[in-house]
Write a structure and sequence with these properties.
ten-stranded mixed beta sheet
Length: 473
């Protein structure tokens, strides 16, 4: 295939290729041989194929290619520890216990230079750069086993150029009591592109709850390209929460790959509250019998915001279960995409796979493209998919307003009830209450990025309530 000339590159694409050429000695310095090989292969793929365009089927309705003309900084040094900067990572949910770890401008950020640490229960947490040196045997076994760095140009760019990220290893038989929380912040005035990479491994019969927060500190433009690999060994349980509340000038691409062995269980909850452009890609490979995956999402977009959820579930083995439930409310001129794909292999008998996407459009200018899809080669399965796009029910609005509820409150109540099917699946009471509080505030238009903790994780002195006399219903 003929390679593109330098003049054909878009500014972002050219910058990515230039950074690799200029800093490859730093990128390869001390890295695991498997990582070095992956970086080289990914770079060659990026140079040949480039970033995805609207000619690519999975990107044909995406606004992301519009960002390719912007000039982003790609390479920034790690920030030194500063108590004042550390305050932005303070996140507290009332009644919710979590151990917090941080990424600042793409670099693992830790006080006292604790770049890699082993907790009392044997769990290893820290910088993925430090982990590949400290635990080369783990990288040799797991790195790149789940993710496909040739999926598209962004996956390739991440593999070739990632500077840091979080590494978590849970030994066999360890059930982590407290949630581990990763807070990612961008704090630069210049347009910045960040490529971060995460690797999470759960041993046999282990358990982990993990919260992944993408936040903005200011309103400056940035592009966040994150790739996460999660490996669940036999009978492991992984409970993942993604909270996304970024400014309208930021683009977020979140690519997560899951590999599940026999009897492993995965539960995912994605809450997208704000963001200029957000694309969540979930790839689930059910590679052992009786593995289960429960994937859920809520998205609330307004103005000219865009949300894209791409979900692929591969039923490779018999007797596995998967369920997808994504619900969204789009207001004003917001746009969205849901692309759900379930693949059932020929020998994956006794598969149970279900998929549903429901949307409410608040204005004629809000749009959603929803594309549920099943590809089934086994004959003894139970599979279904469905999608709905509509407006608030006029009869329900009339019913509530006849009982003394204002039109504005009736709208809020119906939207909240519409989303409750997803939020009730959050298993941690304190976290579920906080989720519901943030959704209420977002529906009222009160939740947007501020100067510090943009997700407002601290519970207010008085919980947010709808001022509705429920006795009238």
């Amino acid at each position: 295939m003929m390679q593109k000339t330098e003049t054909a590159y878009k500014p972002l694409e050219s910058a990515l290729l230039g950074v690799f050429d200029q800093h490859k000695n730093v990128l390869f310095n001390g890295c695991h041989p498997k990582v070095e090989q992956a970086r080289k292969e990914a770079f060659e793929f990026l140079r040949e194929k480039g970033l995805p365009t609207r000619k690519d089927e999975k990107w044909k309705n995406s606004p992301f290619p519009k960002q390719y003309e912007e000039n982003y900084m790609i390479d920034v040094p790690a920030a030194s520890y500063d108590k004042n900067v550390n305050e932005i990572f303070h996140c507290e949910v009332h009644g919710f216990e979590a151990e917090t770890f941080s990424l600042l401008n793409g670099w693992y950020y830790s006080p006292e230079e604790k770049q890699i640490q082993t907790l009392e229960n044997g769990v290893v947490v820290g910088s993925i750069l430090k982990a590949q040196k400290a635990f080369p045997e783990i990288f040799d076994k797991y790195f790149g086993q789940t993710a496909n760095h040739q999926q598209d140009g962004f996956a390739a760019a991440n593999t070739a150029l990632y500077r840091d990220g979080i590494f978590i290893y849970v030994p066999d038989g360890v059930e982590v009591e407290n949630t581990l929380q990763l807070i990612k912040m961008i704090n630069r005035e210049e347009p910045l592109m960040v490529n971060s990479r995460n690797l999470i491994i759960l041993g046999k019969n282990s358990k982990l709850t993990f919260m992944h927060c993408d936040d903005s500190v200011n309103h400056f433009s940035s592009f966040i390209n994150t790739l996460t690999e999660v490996y669940l060994n036999e009978n492991a349980f992984f409970d993942l929460y993604k909270l996304q509340n970024i400014n309208d000038n930021t683009s977020l691409l979140n690519n997560t790959y899951f590999h599940q062995e026999a009897k492993s269980r995965l539960r995912v909850n994605v809450l997208s509250l704000n963001g200029g452009k957000i694309r969540n890609e979930l790839h689930v490979d059910l590679m052992g019998e009786y593995a289960e995956a429960d994937l859920n999402g809520v998205y609330l977009m307004d103005k000219q915001q865009h949300i894209d959820n791409q979900v692929f579930v591969n039923h490779a083995k018999p007797n596995c279960y998967s369920n997808e439930l994504f619900k969204g409310v789009l207001d004003e001129e917001a746009s969205g995409i849901f692309n759900g794909y379930i693949y059932v292999a020929r020998n994956a008998q006794q598969t149970n796979a279900f998929q549903r996407n429901n949307n409410i459009l608040m204005t004629p200018k809000a749009v959603i493209d929803t594309m549920p899809f099943l590809e089934i080669y086994a004959d003894d399965v139970k599979c279904s998919h469905g999608a709905t796009i509509g407006q608030l029910d006029d009869e329900a609005m009339f019913y509530l307003m006849q009982r003394g509820i204002s039109k504005a409150d009736a709208r809020l109540l119906l939207m909240y009830a519409f989303l409750a099917e997803v939020t009730t699946k959050v298993s941690i009471d304190a976290l579920r209450n906080n989720y519901e509080d943030m959704i209420k505030r977002r529906l009222r238009g009160e939740l947007s990025i501020c100067e510090r903790c943009v997700l407002h994780c601290s519970m207010p002195d008085k919980p947010v309530e709808f001022e509705i006399d429920m006795s009238k219903i």
